[in-house]
Predict the structure of Plasmid stabilization protein.
Amino acid sequence: MKVVFHQNFKKQYRKLRKNQQQKFDDQLSIFLENPFDPLLNNHPLQGKYEGFRSINVGGDLRAIYEMAEKDIAYFIAIDTHSKLYST
């Protein structure tokens, strides 16, 4: 599987603490092996993110992505649950 990062995702990633970046990198490795590994809690989203999916990064941190094609995951955002899902 190929992973593509939106510019917004890259900006948010750079703002994370180093340990949060490392946790995402670890979760991404799991995601690449098996996107539906139970450790990721991969689930579809509703509302403004309908059509996208979310994986748990650790603690309250979430990463949002969509499957652009069968084997291309397009990550668009990474932040805390409350910041991502507030209106």
In short: The chain has one domain: 2-85. The mean pLDDT is 94. DSSP finds three helices and five strands in the chain. Helices lie at 7-15, 18-33, 81-85.
